[in-house]
Design a protein that fits this description.
The complex is a heterodimer of chains A (179) and B (413). The longest helix of chain A is centred in the first third of the chain and has 23 residues. Chain A is globular, with a radius of gyration of 18 Å. The termini of chain A are far apart. Chain A contains 11 helices and no strands. Chain A is an all-alpha fold. The C terminus of chain A is likely disordered. With 413 residues, chain B is mainly beta. In chain B, 14% of the residues lie in helices and 36% in strands. In chain B, the strands form 7 sheets. A 4-stranded antiparallel beta sheet of chain B has the order 1-2-3-4, with no helix packed on it. Chain B is globular and about 65 Å long. Chain B starts with a helix and ends in a 7-residue tail after the last strand. Classes of the chains: A mainly alpha (179), B mainly beta (413). At the A-B interface, helix 2, helix 3, helix 4, helix 5 and helix 7 of A face helix 1, helix 2, strand 21 and strand 25 of B.
């Protein structure tokens, strides 16, 4: 039995310390995913904390021998989707994303445009880009999170990337930056 | 932009966000609660029984005949905030509040934490709507009525009442009056300090207009959008917003610098328009007829309102009254309405091809019901006699659990 398998079995048995040890390495990726999906730091924190609670409650249904990361990221992605649907009135504001003023004032126009372009994508398309290009997940793992085969995940990701490239905001901003 | 550049952009855009503080705090709270519950169950059974009877006695003393009905999960008023201390000017204004028909309102922070108002009292639940606690008991004479409830962040929430704007900074657990304007109707705060409010003195909406605040609701200034009256406003990003009224729908894509017409209606045809967007692209507009006889209309857009197409409207047997649009996804929406024959009716649209499907819900009501959706979680509330009925569903409305709260003491009619 490997160390993580041992932790998993202990966590399944209700050992909270083992649960924290098992999931701590995935908390950062989960938070990065939530920040990019929700674009608001506070919401992202909310989503990850809720996802941790759900993972803790559902750990009994997790199949031993499988990788914990995609399973957990799926819960985080669902939590983000749920938060985002419910909070359809919410607003993407830079000050909500960065806690210190200097950070958001220093944001490059291209980064701001990326956030805007992402905000206009449907959540499932945005998820593909975030998983592959931000979390650097291989397509096999992207597929494990979003469902379907790695090939399908790959072709869908490229289609969304093409759509993002065509986003007029990015093109216009790109022209401005170059000029 | 190549893939490498996109990766760099992602890192540049999001890596500077302050790190996550404590991802396990809710896990710890949850298991501590469970442990505490077991501890209480084993060692304090007798004490709990004693406390329960004391609590019931206290409740009866405080509320007279307004004790919760048997079998409800409603919890008593323990921990309710003390009445808000007002300045002399506010007292004078509040004293002149015109009593209006109590209307229930609902707002959800997550699929666990939610607020419901009835009259001018506010209840809070943190267990998916199963148990409710009074967090704002309202004024002594209960002439007030909360017209809109809104969560802004995990900590900040607002309530627009007919005696002013109430604000909570502790997740809805306590409330204070921040402005004594009696004309606030609908809220759309984008942060704890900046917000847009529909205001007007005419109950029918003929003079409703938009206001903006930059100081958390202490002061408001007029915010013209080229449309009057305005009955609805929604911001979905720092650049995109929609405002709507009986005359049409206008939108901005540049943070409010310019507003453009997106839909224009004939004068006198519609009394109210509601808009709801899930993102900058996907949304619905719901037009209610002025005379209650003409058919309502629902429009849908998937390109931020550049193009709208009609998607029919729900057909109920006795016509629509006090109805509310709730957008639940990019191509799905719900309209909560009330018919004399069926009580509260929930009409759902899951993709325009499927059409509207209406089903009576397991609660009758004498006021329009209000619903909030968060993923598959639904919370539906309505007023029936002196009871607030709150129904919660965790499977998108397939099955419901219902809680009734006695509201006789809060609704002066």
């Amino acid at each position: 039995m490997t160390l993580s398998e041992g932790l998993l079995e202990r966590a399944k048995g209700g050992d909270r310390v083992a649960f924290e040890e098992l999931f701590t390495p995935h908390a950062t990726d989960a938070f990065r995913l939530a920040v990019a999906m929700l674009q608001r730091r506070e919401d992202a924190e909310d989503a990850v904390q809720n996802a941790m609670l759900k993972a803790w409650r559902r750990l009994g249904t997790f199949r031993s021998g499988c990788d914990v990361r995609p399973w957990f990221l799926t819960i985080v992605a669902n939590e983000c989707r749920s938060l985002r649907r419910g909070r359809w009135w919410s607003v993407v504001r830079l000050a909500d994303l960065y806690s210190d003023c200097a950070s958001w004032r220093d944001s490059l126009p291209r980064e701001m445009d990326l956030r805007r372009a992402l905000a206009q994508l449907p959540a499932d398309q945005r998820l593909l880009l975030v998983l592959h290009y931000y979390l650097d997940l291989p397509f096999a793992e992207v597929a494990a999170v979003v469902g379907g085969s790695p090939e399908a995940a790959k072709s869908r990701t490229f289609r969304v990337l093409r759509k993002l490239r065509l986003s007029s905001e990015l093109i216009e901003a790109g022209a401005e930056v170059q000029s | 932009m190549d893939e490498h550049e996109l990766r760099q952009l992602f890192h540049g855009a999001y890596d500077r966000v302050q790190p996550l503080r404590d991802p396990f705090c809710r896990v710890r709270e949850s298991s501590d609660q469970r442990r505490a519950q077991w501890g209480y169950a084993i060692s304090g059974g007798l004490a709990a029984l004693l406390a329960f009877f004391t609590l019931v006695a206290l409740l009866l003393v405080r509320h007279g005949s307004s004790a919760p009905s048997a079998g409800t999960a409603y919890q008593p008023v323990t921990g309710a905030t003390a009445p808000v201390v007002l300045s002399p000017l506010e007292v004078a204004q509040v004293a002149n509040v015109v009593s209006e028909r109590p209307t229930p309102r609902v707002a959800a922070l997550s699929d666990q934490v939610a607020l419901v108002s009835v009259g001018d009292s506010i209840l809070r639940a943190s267990d998916a709507g199963q148990t409710w606690r009074t967090v704002y008991p309202g004024r002594h004479d209960h002439a007030g009525n909360v017209r809109d409830l809104e969560w802004v962040t995990r900590d900040v929430a607002f309530a627009a009442s007919n005696y002013g704007l109430l604000r909570s900074d502790d997740g809805g657990r306590s409330w204070r009056l921040v402005n004594a304007r009696p004309d606030l109707r609908r809220l759309d705060f984008v942060s704890g300090s900046v917000g847009y409010v529909v205001a007007g003195t005419d109950a029918q909406g003929s003079d409703w207009h938009l206001l903006r605040t930059d100081d958390g609701g202490a002061a408001f200034t007029a915010y013209p959008v080229g449309l009057l009256p305005v009955t609805w406003v929604q911001w979905v990003s720092d650049t995109h917003a929609w405002a709507a009224g009986p005359q049409g729908v206008v939108a901005t894509t540049d943070g409010g610098e310019h507003w453009q017409e997106q839909l224009t209606f004939g004068k006198g045809v519609f009394s109210d328009t509601q808009v709801g967007f899930v993102d900058a692209g996907h949304g619905f507009a719901y037009l209610r007829s002025a005379d209650g006889q003409s058919a309502p209309t629902v429009y849908q857009t998937s390109d931020g309102g550049r193009h709208w197409r009609g998607v029919g409207a729900p057909d109920t047997r006795s016509g629509l009254k006090d109805d509310q649009l709730a957008v639940t996804g990019p191509s799905s929406a719900e309209i909560i309405t009330r018919s004399e024959a069926d009580g509260v009716v929930r009409c759902t649209l899951s993709g325009s091809a499927a059409g509207w499907k209406c089903l009576p819900q397991p609660l009758t009501a004498e006021t329009g019901a209000r619903e909030v959706a968060r993923g598959p979680f639904r919370l539906l509330t309505a007023l029936r006699g002196d009871q607030v009925v709150i129904a919660a569903s965790s499977d998108a409305g397939t099955t419901w659990s219902t809680v009734e709260v006695d509201a006789a003491a809060w609704t002066r009619r």
